[in-house]
Design brief:
single chain; 7 helices; mainly alpha
């Protein structure tokens, strides 16, 4: 299935802002996101505001993209939406690093709407039960069970990284 983001336009078509035209780059990009979940909430709020103020999405489009449960395909976008989606993709590539960049790299080049959808889904995936489970596993970790000290430390490092994301 695909989402028709075109249905979200109409009266809410992005306006031209006096600070610059769509994708002009005259406003400073938000600080980079490295893929840490503790950073996500604040970063996402700033980035949503940036995308909306740059005219890349409307609030309604952004909500539709974030709530979409299936792939957003190019074929269902108008030419104008396609241009905004492509600009959004390249802005995202400039704003993310590490794990977050690897998430963005999984989509077709230029599909910013889909890249944002996947990033939102990835960063919000760790629910409370999973988080508590990881903390318990970290707190009760036994290096001796994992063979060598290096293997145990490597496994503990992966657990901590998973929790931090």
């Amino acid at each position: 299935e695909t989402v028709n983001v075109a249905e979200t336009t109409g009266a809410e078509t992005p306006r031209e802002f006096t600070a610059g035209t769509v994708g002009s780059g005259t406003d400073r990009l938000p600080e980079p996101l490295f893929g840490d979940r503790y950073q996500w909430t604040d970063w996402a709020l700033v980035t949503r505001a940036y995308f909306i103020s740059q005219g890349l999405v409307t609030p309604k489009e952004l909500q539709t993209i974030e709530n979409c449960t299936y792939v957003i395909q190019f074929g269902h976008l108008s030419q104008e939406q396609l241009a905004r989606s492509q600009t959004m993709f390249y802005k995202l590539v400039q704003m993310v690093r590490g794990h977050a960049l690897r998430v963005v790299q999984t989509v077709a080049v230029g599909n910013g709407f889909e890249a944002w959808r996947l990033l939102v889904r990835d960063m919000q995936d760790l629910d409370t039960n999973q988080s508590v489970g990881l903390v318990n596993e970290i707190m009760n970790f036994d290096l001796a069970v994992h063979g060598s000290f290096e293997q145990g430390l490597s496994h503990l490092d992966r657990l901590v990284e998973s929790y931090c994301r």
